[in-house]
Amino acid sequence: MTHITPELLTDIRGRFAQIDHCPQQGERIFFENAGGALTLNSVVGTSQAYAAIPDNQGRDNPGSHELVRVITKAKEDMAVFMNAPGGQFFVGESGTELLFRLIMNACLGTGAGQVLGTTLEHPATRSACDRWARVAGQTHVLVEHDDETGTVTAEGYAARVTPDTKVATIVHTSPVTGMGVDAESVVKAIRAVAPDCFIIVDGIQHAAHGRIDLTAYDVDGYVISPYKVFSRHGYGVAWISDRLTHLPHNSLIDGPEDNWEMGTRDTGSYATMSDVVSYFEWLGEQVSDETDRRAKFVAAGEAIHAQEKALTDAMIHGTGNLAGLKDMEKVQIIGGVDNPAREGLVSLTVKGVPSVDVVKMLNDQGIRTHLRKADHYSGNILTPLGLDGCVRVSMCHYNSEHEVAQFLAAMKTIAA
Fold first, then answer.
1. For 146, phi and psi rounded to 5 degrees?
2. I need a labelling partner for 398 at 20 to 30 A (CA). Which of 251, 280, 301, 325 fits?
3. Residues 6 or more apart from 143 whose CB is under 8 A from it?
4. pTM for the predicted model, two decimal places
5. In angstroms, how far apart are the furthest CA atoms of the chain?
6. Residues 256/210, Cβ–Cβ less than 8 Å
7. How far is Cα 75 from Cα 343, in angstroms, rounded to an integer?
8. What residues contact residue 370 under an 8 Å CB cut-off, 6+ apart?
9. In sequence order, what DSSP letters do the residues of 121-138 get, joined into one string?
10. How many whole angstroms separate alpha carbon 374 and alpha carbon 354?
């Protein structure tokens, strides 16, 4: 496998809309990928094309037949991309809505027992478990994450799982710390004690980094938000196992028993996921000689990981003659300096400068970052650290080391 070369990076950047400019702001560096990644140009074109189509699925006419073909192809594309072992893919209102729905049905369909999650998780899973565990007469238990590393381990889950654990949730990557969770080892720890537990993963923050392998994870549900993986807003994507498919769920009387979609969904949402999968396949072809389709996706994920590690290393340790964040006396890096779980994201604070002001000063220099506050979204991470906010700097593989250098030059002044 080859790394992403400067020449390939130029080609990659050319495939994304608004890569270096904002229609309102003008030229800018986009380090807000965790809030919504850049959109593929192909997705923009596909969205426009499908917005014009009046036909619905399930009719006996050529237009309808084509819509059904596109949806079938998208599900097949996603199955190879995520290495899905059976089960089914479907789209919904959003990633949050789908997580709520999967967790609701898992809780209601399993009876008294324990629902296991962690303090690392996004409120989409924590809130859903809190509500539906109470409705189902279950106990919601939270594994404490490690404040220093910004993640949670299989050992943490193993200490709290019990034989009557009926539902468990995992966040694949934290949207605040940027640290990944070893889902495969966590699942093994859970299933060693509660083999029939329904395990649902929030993959929303992880998906843009590639390297999804549902066969290896052995879970029952995996949810992503396409706008965070190069597609657009307006829908979420879920995969569920055959076990979860067959649990009682909302459906129409006398309708197909295995259908989890609520009403007629936008064919364009499926079509744009095929665009995303095609992009990963193309990237895999550029960085490897693989001919097997799944192997191309694996190669793409490895190249993305390597590129993003190079970017975060440059940001933390410095690049050229510019000092990195670790050498700026007033800067605190959440999750530590050398953390192997880091996925393309650095969250930080500057002593004596409110994070809201840091974000504004960076934005005034055309560098887009984001403020995370100790609110219902991020308080679970920030409050234990004694922080009321932090600056989230989130990168993706299409960002460049030159952009990192511009960010460090700006931070040198802000943190002086």
1. -90, 115
2. 325
3. 116, 117, 118, 119, 152, 156, 157, 159, 160
4. 0.96
5. 68
6. no
7. 27
8. 32, 34, 35, 359, 391, 392, 394
9. S-HHHHHHHHHHHHHTT-
10. 13
